Each structure stands twice: as structure tokens, then as C-alpha cells.
Amino acid sequence: MSQDVRQLVDAARDGDPRSVARLISMVERNAAELAEIAAAFGADAQRAHVVGLTGSPGVGKSTTTNELVTAYRRDGKRVGVLAIDPSSPFTGGAILGDRVRMQDHATDPGVYIRSMSSRGHLGGLSAATAAAVRVLAGVGCDVVLVETVGVGQAEVEIASLADTTLVLLAPGMGDAIQAVKAGILEIADVFVVNKADRDGADATVRDINGMIALGERGPGQWRPRVVKAVAARGEGIDDVLHAIVEHREHLEKTGELRKRREERAAAEIEALVLGRMRARIGSLRGGHSLAELAAKVAEGVVDPYRAAEELLSGLG
Q: Which of 6, 29, 185, 291 measures 20 to 30 Å from 154, CA to CA?
């Protein structure tokens, strides 16, 4: 390990926010030192409980995240927050405004908040989110909160990253048919019906409970909790926190936590391998192999499956 990386990691572990920021920036730009950084953290990168917050735009994800940070800090826990903001499909830029709602913790040395642009990555996260979570866990965060961009029904990537997934809803989400559709509602470990002071909150809770009752669960499987909250006033946050703790205890008792983390590790390894494969394929674009195969496929001489096999054999 280089001296610069070791000093940076040590400073980040001592609570220096600039060093943490540099490490996450290195993750985002896929720096050459990433392997050294990952090795430096070792088993420490697995100690934090990762809580994902997802839901449609406007349901109160950032406000709920802010209140959860307050609750965790009250318990003396060190907290990391990754707030993923959407990037423009035209300019590629992003406002990175989610943490504006978390200014209460801006000067707290026990809290690190980082906004990340999705950079066109689908699924509600950024491509660098998993590695950034490892950094925050490695520097000593007890809990890492990952807030997704405002997502739709099919964006469920957070479930493969988080130990506990919170799906936030608000009254007026639709009728009972909407509640039983496949997709994001299926990934929740805890449902949070936020803005519960509005009309229709009880109906939303009833619809979600009805959907849960229709699901098939084996003996000892987790039954998602449904919690009402008004995050803007801090109401119901203790109930949300209790549900998260209850789910963590269930994961540890049943061995599901280890299973989830093994699946997360497998997905991350696969993504790294695929990324390197794409880079190697990209390097072939400057040569003749890919261009020649593409020409043959376009002419109908070779089918794309055979072309792919030839390209893969060349990569080996």
C-alpha cells in the first residue's frame, strides 16, 4: 500500500471529513488506487448497517433521512449519508440538492453527508454507490443511510445494496390495485407512510397491509412492517427506528444478514469483472476484430451470437 493511501485512510478513520471526501471522489472517478483503498478497510467495511430509503419524488425521503440521522445521533451512533440526485439526460449535470434538507447536521463531526449524481445510472443509485458505502463503513460509520433518487415502480436496485430497505409512501398513492402491483413495493422491509396527517393515510396503510397479507411467506420469514410518520414534525420516527432495529435483529437471528451481504458481494464482484471486460472490448475498437465482426454481421455473413463467441475467445 502506498504511503499516500495509508495516510488518507488513517486521516479518514480519525474523522477528517476532507479525507473522507477525497476517498469518495476517488471512488466516483474510478481511481487506480481503489484496490488499495478496499484492502486498507478490510473487514471494517462490513460493520455498518446499511439502510436504504426509496420511494417516489416528493414522499419525504430527505426529510425522513434527516430525522433518522437525528435519532441515531441521539443514540451515540456515527452516521454516513449518501444522497443520490438525478442527473440531467441532456447536460449530465445535477443540482445535488437533497442534503439541503439536512443542514441540521452540517457541523456535526459524527455525521458525514455526501450527495452523488446518478450520472445516468438506472435503478435509483449511482454506479459508485456500493464502493462509497464501503468507504463510509470503513471509516467507522455505524449506520449508512442511502437515499435513492425519486424512483418509479421498477427501480429496485437499492434492495441489492441495503441490509434494510425502507419504501416511503404518501397518502394519495392510488387505489388498492396500485398497491398490489409488482415492483418497488415488493422490496420493502419496512413501509413508511409519510405525511400521515393528510387525508387518506389510514386507507394507504390498509391497502399496504392488504398487499402484505396476499404475499407468500415461509415459516420464520420477515413480515414487512407498516409505520405511519410525519417526518416534517419528527412524528413516528422512533417507530421507524424500532422497525429497523427489529429487522436487523431478525436478519442476524436467521442468518439472512450474512446471505444478503454475500449476494451483495457477488453482485459487486460481477460488476467489477463486467466493467473490466467492457474496457477490454473497448480497446478492441481501435483494432480490427470488432470492426471486422460487425461488418460481417451487418452483411449477414455471420450471426451476432457467433460473432460474440469469436470476440470472447479473443479476450481469453
A: 29
Each residue's pLDDT tens digit, 5-59: 889 999 999 999 999 999 999 988 888 888 888 888 888 888 899 999 998 888 8
Cβ-contact 147, 81 below 8 angstroms: yes
Based on its alpha-carbon atoms, the radius of gyration of the chain, rounded to whole angstroms, reads: 22
C-alpha cell at 275: 466493467
CB count within 10 Å of CB 254 equals 13
Between CA 255 and CA 270 the distance in angstroms is 23
Residue closest to 50 by CA, chosen among 164, 188, 129: 164
**Strand pairing partners for 54?**
167
For residue 199, the tally of other CB atoms under 10 A from its CB is 8
CA-based nearest residue to 157, from 195, 193, 118, 192: 118
Query: 222's torsion region: left (phi>0), alpha (psi -120 to 50) or beta?
Result: beta
Least Cα distance to 96 among 19, 24, 8, 188 occurs for 24
The strand pairing partners of 85, in sequence order, are 117
Q: Please spell the DSSP secondary structure of 68-93, one letter per residue.
A: HHHHHHHTT--EEEEEEE---TTT--
Residue 67 CA to chain centroid, in angstroms?
A: 19
Enumerate the β-bridge partners of residue 230. Answer: 235
Residue indicated by cell numbers 454481421:
297
Retrieve residue 213's grid coordinates: 397479507
Residue whose C-alpha cell is 488518507: 8
Task: Specify the DSSP element, H or E, that contains 114.
Answer: strand 111-117
Q: Which residues contact 59 (CB under 8 A, 6 or more apart)?
A: 168, 169, 170, 194, 195
Q: For residue 210, what is the enclosing H or E element?
A: helix 201-214
